[in-house]
Amino acid sequence: MSFDPLRLVLLIACWTVILVRIPALRSAEQRLIWFILLLLGGGMLMLQNPVGKLIEHTAVPNLDSLLSSLMAVGVATLLLSLALHVAGKQESRPPWRRPRLLCCGATVAIMIGTFVAVDTLKIPARTRFLPIPGTFTAHTVYWVTYLLYMLVVTAWTGVALLRHLRKTSHPALRLAVLLLAVATAAFLIFLGTRVASLFTTTPLLPTLGKYVSSLHTIGILVGCSLAALLPLWRAVVNIWHGQRLYALWKTLCEAIPHVALQPPRGRIAELLRFTDSRLRLNRMIIEIRDGLLVMREWVTPAQLAAIGPAVEGVPEDRAEAVRTACWLKVALRAKESGHPRAAETLDLVYHGGVDIESELRWLRRIAAAWRSPTVSRLVNALPA
């Protein structure tokens, strides 16, 4: 793949994530990632030929180089803020009083001021807005300021990311942090080529810098996209679990309305409910558990004894879930028939998880058994 098509693919991918993850602006941590992608996407936009031609019509030479560099400063600063945030560094001071943000503002001001001086004084520049070696002008100040700030911030970010990498256990987040660390290391190499370019005119350095900067762009894009899309993926997984529990949950809530915080709605209506997917799933887990505790009051010792032999042929890993689904169907049938509560409340809800995740796995097994023809056949064979 040639360079321009690759840039276009990266640009499309970046702006797709930006648009899809606009809701991330509501979260402090996700907001940082979103703005990193926004500035990265803006920088990549500067490299597209149509945008370059549009900027040429402004009659300001090398304006695209200034804008790209300012966006790079923004990406580096936000990436450092993100690295410090995930590492647990709490910021007590407001943004306008944080030293690194003040340094960022000073860097941007110096870069803009020296750029205007270069344009006003018509100081000659090489390709990629590089200064002429052996001279010291406003152009040199521009590059020294930019490179000094970027080297310090990028190195700081790399150290923070590597330290956090050892503490990250989630596979997707670990990969994201690793990619950001690799991108940071690649950018340090790129900055090294730019430092060397201040003293030599060899064309090898800009070419090497172009490829290394592409590695940096890909690492930042993929790493931030993984982190940005992870909440969306988690929401999809939560919705999937909720849909697998839906039939069991709805039946229990309709049979015992007081266990439900809100009356159950249709499957599609529940799917389209604009609430936090994790909160909704946790609520379903709690309400199913409460429903099981209530429904056991309609199971008699004789019915439970009849269920035991009926599930003897069920594989051991499914037996307890099938037994639970069976007594629950028996209890629902008894309640619907108007039978009174059993004289003795049996201890039937002792299985389950020690935390929300293990409880979810247990209820998923019950829900799967609840829907199975095996359980319906076993319950129909039992005396009413």
Would you write up a description of this structure?
This is MAB_1171c family putative transporter. Keywords: Membrane, Transmembrane, Transmembrane helix. By secondary structure, this protein is mainly α. The chain has two domains: about 5-230, Rhopdopsin 7-helix transmembrane proteins, CATH 1.20.1070; about 235-380, no CATH class. It has 14 helices and no strands.
Report a brief summary of the structure.
The chain is mostly helical and 384 residues long. The chain has helices spanning 3-20, 28-46, 49-56, 63-86, 99-121, 138-165, 171-197, 204-255, 267-271, 277-295, 301-310, 316-336, 356-371, 373-381. Helix content is 73%, strand content 0%.
Largest sheet: none
- From the coordinates shown, what is the CATH architecture of the largest domain? Up-down Bundle
Average pLDDT value? Answer: 88
- Beta-strand residue percentage: under 5%
Distance between the termini: 70 Å
Would you state the CATH class of the largest domain?
Mainly Alpha
Order of secondary-structure elements:
HHHHHHHHHHHHHH
In one word, what is the shape?
Answer: rod-shaped
Number of strands: 0
Domain count: the total is: 2
Using only C-alpha atoms, the radius of gyration works out to 31 Å
